[in-house]
Specification:
mainly alpha
């Protein structure tokens, strides 16, 4: 019945939120207050770690969507607070049609009342509201100044709106004040757009640049956990771009401002992207921007912002050779720079050059224990396409000899199996790991992982006493419950004993899993009575741990 009335049910809420958020939302139903039903939406407040505003849009036969100003909701998720409001709506479903009708009637009544007012009555109403609402008065004053072209007042108001000082009670803007500050920044962006539309685009460009600089400088002292200020800042940057497209400022001067801003310390929040201005800059502006960026990169070759700007400009121009030259100036030991060069050349259709750079990367990093694995993957993939599978084995073998990791072992196995040489490669690889284990280096755990990954259980039992950790012992026992139940049982019981000291749900769940394994071993040995006696004694010993008893009950132990 509720689904027919409001257009959704609990199943839709669970699907939108996911099981975890839905279950958590159940606990917030009592925290919902101020439920207001509109014609096509519902708003409410949910009291959690903060006080969050929620709005649900009720589609006509199309289900429900939701918005919440909590951090998770700000990312576009249907959060637990949305679930709580949705459940509240379902609980009051019988009254929803009546409340919707009442909302429509109120809206119609308000519209009719306003329409019936005379000009003088409307003015009196606006003045009355302005007298009690300073924010409304400020917004109307700004709109009036924008309309009348009072640029001095507009500039003063816009810079006042982005000034963080009125909100920075302790030298910074706290989380609780960030949303209010964000609304002011958005208001400033709206005023700049109004200037542009009103034929004052040139003035809007200059004002926007001042506001952007001020906002970026302030952002480091703002707790913008919800991202509200960031969203308003992007609106400010968009207003600047719109103004530039309308005003068409001198391209070279615009290029200079963009480069100076992007390479300055303050571009953290507005994230102005110079390439968005390509149509305004034209060839002369883009050329000036590239020259300035290149000079800046030459002065500060290790500067990330300088390199990133030059990189973006070169990519936009499609100048692959210049991009390769840029990357080649700083070849990182991990091989990631070689890979980036290879990928750029590959995208340009220069496959032979791309592979040559990737192969050079492997040579240059041959003595590095850890490199970017994607470089070896790239080379091996190209070798596989060309039928050079034996060479791919060489690459994987060399990386395994340096890394001695399970991943490198698995990659070597995959490559060697293609050319049917895994038996000899495996023997050599295990020999290296056994030598490492004998020396007491990291090879012991990797050796066990390799043997377990190969399902070579017998060999793993031989090596385990000298190099297995608890995780590997448990894995070995899990694989041996049927074939070697007595050996596996000894492992399970030893690990259970180790867990008697620590506490917590994760510890108790692991103990339960170990006991389940031990029970399987006793079943295979025909000694379930011994297992029952062991668990009974364990329960008596640890009876004060009520959560453990609950978990054991759940697993029927």
């Amino acid at each position: 019945m509720a689904r027919k009335v409001v257009g959704f049910g609990e199943d839709e809420l669970r699907t939108l939120a996911g099981d975890r958020s839905f279950e958590r939302g159940l606990g917030y139903v009592d925290a919902v207050s101020g439920l207001e039903v509109g014609d096509g939406s519902v708003t409410a407040v949910v009291h959690g770690t903060g006080v969050y505003e929620v709005e649900l849009t009720l589609g006509r036969g199309t289900g429900v969507s939701g918005w919440c100003d909590c951090p998770y909701g700000q990312e576009g998720n249907f959060c637990k607070h949305c679930v709580a409001v949705g459940l509240t709506v379902l609980g009051q479903a019988a009254a929803i049609p009546r409340r919707r009708a009442a909302a429509r009637a109120r809206a119609a009544g308000l519209e009719g009342w306003l329409t019936a007012l005379s000009r003088d009555e409307l003015l009196a109403l606006v003045r009355e509201q302005m007298a009690g609402d300073r924010a409304l008065r400020r917004r109307l004053e700004l709109r009036a100044s924008t309309t009348h072209g009072d640029l001095d007042t507009v500039r003063e108001r816009i810079l006042a709106l982005v000034d963080p000082r009125p909100f920075a009670r302790y030298g910074y803007i706290e989380y609780s004040d960030a949303a209010s500050y964000a609304r002011q920044v958005a208001e400033a962006a709206d005023a700049l757009r109004a200037l542009t539309v009103g034929g004052k685009a040139t003035q809007a460009v200059g004002l926007a640049e001042q506001a952007i600089v001020a906002l970026d400088k302030a952002y480091g002292e703002i707790d913008d956990s919800d991202g509200a200020v960031g969203q308003a800042a992007h609106a400010m940057a968009a207003a600047h771009l719109d103004a530039c497209r309308a005003a068409r400022p001198e391209p070279r001067q615009l290029a200079e401002w963009l480069v100076g801003h992007v390479l300055g310390e303050a571009n953290e929040v507005t994230e102005v992207n110079p390439l968005d201005y390509a149509d305004v800059l034209g060839p002369s502006g883009l050329d000036r921007m590239r020259r300035l960026a290149t000079e800046a990169c030459r002065r500060n070759p290790n500067g990330w912002a300088e390199q990133h700007l030059v990189e973006r400009l070169l990519k936009a121009e499609g100048d692959v050779d210049a991009l390769v030259t840029l990357y080649a100036q700083d070849l990182v030991p991990s091989g990631i720079t070689h890979l980036r060069i290879a990928e750029e050349l590959d995208a340009a259709g220069r496959e032979d050059e791309a592979l040559a750079w990737a192969e050079r990367g492997l040579r240059d990093t041959a003595d590095e224990v850890h490199i970017d694995g994607r470089l070896a993957d790239y080379v091996c993939d190209r070798y596989a396409r060309a039928g050079r599978t034996a060479e791919a084995v060489v690459v994987r073998r060399n990386r395994f000899r340096m890394e001695r990791s399970l991943t490198a072992y698995q990659q070597l196995r995959t490559a060697a199996q293609v050319v049917d040489c895994w038996e000899s490669e495996r023997e050599a690889a295990l020999a290296l790991l056994r030598e490492d284990a004998r020396k007491g280096s990291y090879g012991g755990p990797v050796l066990m992982d390799a043997l377990l990954d190969d399902d070579d259980v017998d060999a793993a039992w031989l090596e385990a006493p000298g190099g297995a950790d608890d995780r590997q012992w448990q894995r070995l026992a899990d694989l041996s419950r049927e074939a070697r139940p007595a050996d596996a049982l000894a492992v399970y019981l030893r690990l259970v004993e180790q867990l008697k000291g620590p506490t917590g749900d994760r510890v108790y769940e692991r103990m339960a899993r170990l006991l389940l394994g031990a029970r399987d071993c006793h079943r295979a040995l025909g000694t379930l009575d011994e297992f029952a006696a062991y668990v009974s004694a364990l329960r008596v010993e640890l009876k004060r741990r009520r959560k453990l008893m609950t978990i054991l009950d759940r697993h029927r132990l």
